[in-house]
Structures are given as C-alpha cells and as structure tokens.
Design a protein that fits this description.
homodimer; 177 residues; alpha+beta; NADH Oxidase; five-stranded antiparallel β-sheet
C-alpha cells in the first residue's frame, strides 16, 4: 500500500467513528477485546503516568445494574461488553483529559474491527453506586463507561444523523478573537 | 484490502502513536492540516455539543511566547504548528474529557500523515497569559495545546523508550477489587 493511499484510508477511518447505542447480542470476540486493551495500554498520558485501571464487564446483570444508575449510561443495558475506567484520583484535571484520550482510543480500536461504541456518564449518586458495585476504593475516581458491541443496524438511533458544526465555525487562525 | 488485514493495519496504526517533542522546521502541508481539522470536527462530544474552537498557530513568535508561559508546553517553541483548543466553559468535567478526546483525534490524524505531536499543558498564570495573547474571552477555558511537526529523528528524546504498564496491571474482569 503506498503512503498516500494509506494516509487517506487512515483519515477516512478516523473520520468515520460515530456513537452507537443499540447493539446486537453476540459477544465481542476475545481477539478484538485484546486489540482494544493493547491500544488502550499504549495511550499517552500526562507524564506517562497511565493513571487508569480498566474494568471489563460482560455479565448482563452487572451491565443492566450500571445502566440504571444515575447518569447517562442506559445504553450499557444492551451492550455486549462494558468498560469502566477507574482513574487513580491524583491530578483531577489532567486525569479527566487522559480519560478522554483513553476512551477515544478504545472506541477507535473497536471501530477498527467494526464494533460500535458510545460513552456513558455517571453523575450524583450514580458515581458512588458504581464504585460500590465494582469494589472501587473511595480514593479512586469513576465517571465514565464505554458500551461496546456490534451495531444493531435496524435501530432508529443508528440511522439518525449526527451533524457537526462547519469548520469555519470552529477554527481560528493565530487568534481566537 | 480484505477486512482482517484492514483491521490489523488500523490497530497497528492506533498502537503506534508516540509523543514527539522535537520537530523538523518544514511546515505541515495545508492538506494535512485540513485532514486534522476535519477529523477534529467529527470528534464525538457529550450531547454532541462540540464545545470547542481550535486556534491554529503558525507564527514562530507566538509559538515561542506560548512555550514560555507557565506550564509544560516548552515543545511549542520548535513546533511547525500549534493548536490551542478553546473550550466553551460550560460543563467542566465533560468538557475536559471531550478536550482529551478531541486532542487524541487530532494527534492520530497527524500521525496518519507521519506528522508527530505532543500535548502541552498550561497552569497557574500561564492560563490567563495564553488567553490574553490569543484574545480568548474570560468565560472560555484554555488548558492544553498540541505541538505538531515532522519528527526530528536525530533527537535523543525521540529515541527514548516510552514504556507502558503490562495489561495484567491495568485490566480487571467484572470487578475492580
């Protein structure tokens, strides 16, 4: 594959990730999960601290329980696999940013194999309930979860547009204002 | 290209991103910058709010001034291009996470073209100084910057290993503890 064609394919791949919230029931193969975890492992972080542990959840009852907790993670109920990043809880601002980097990579690695994903978010009492259910010590931080599975193409949400702002609206040269 | 080979190439691509802090002087071509911005534009965000504006900086004097501000962004001084995400400043935790997702995508899009990158971070008085220099209104948030350029392969830092924790240390099944 020549380099220009390779670059074009990689850009098309990066551009094409979209949130998927409805999943088919079949499991995500172990080889795919391993690729996701390896990509996660190599994600960059502030001072290379890698301030994360990933809890992998396949049990339907746990996924359903997490989906009911306060927040925006209902799609976990139907996911074939959930991943909850548990963050070390040391430098909050950098860790949240690193958590975003990590989750983006995991979702891209899933997408590389045709596996869909979306981000869930816990708020209020949901955070402590998730920590208790997963046995996470108090000093560690939990705020997001990733739902994963093969996309249910018949789902209405899957077919809905996910529009984006035009570049002219989000890009400035040299100065913001 | 068959699908298994495609997936393998995409995973290898995602795994291979490493921080680059020393750059060759030549500019990043406009086509590459456009690809990075398009990939950025399609990044997912909480409630699809896209709470960002990207300030693109090519002027050497501005890059050098930013590199001197309080924080960890010295590598901007030698970058061919800098990008400073200006965040809307509305829902802090989700915005920091979204900023991490956005920056990871931009760095991967650069990497798709062989362009290196690393994250810079502003703290203390650095944050307000960056905002003043770039004309960012008080209610908006600035915390990170991305340095971009073709890697200087002769640099010692480029050749240094960037080790990662083994999977066994960062992965748990079903429960954290």
């Amino acid at each position: 594959m020549n380099d220009t064609r390779g670059a074009k394919e990689r850009i098309a791949f990066l551009r094409s990730l979209r949130a998927v919230r409805s999943f088919r029931p079949e499991p995500v193969p172990e080889g795919v999960v391993n690729d996701m975890l390896e990509v996660a492992r190599w994600t960059g972080s502030a001072s290379n601290r890698q301030p994360w542990t990933l809890v992998i959840i396949r049990e339907r009852e746990i996924l359903r329980a997490l989906a009911r907790m306060e927040g925006y993670a209902k799609h976990l109920a139907g996911a074939a696999l959930g991943i909850v990043p548990v963050m070390d809880g040391e430098r909050e601002e950098q860790e949240i940013y690193d958590e975003g980097r990590l989750c983006e990579r995991i979702m891209l690695a899933a997408h590389a194999h045709g596996v869909g994903s979306s981000v869930g978010w816990f708020v209020g009492s949901g955070v402590d309930e998730v920590k208790e259910m997963l046995g996470v010590p108090p000093q560690r931080r939990v705020r997001s979860a990733i739902s994963l599975g093969y996309p249910d193409e018949t789902s209405r949400r899957r077919r809905m547009g996910q529009a984006r702002k035009p570049l002219a609206e989000i890009v400035r040269e040299e100065r913001y204002g």
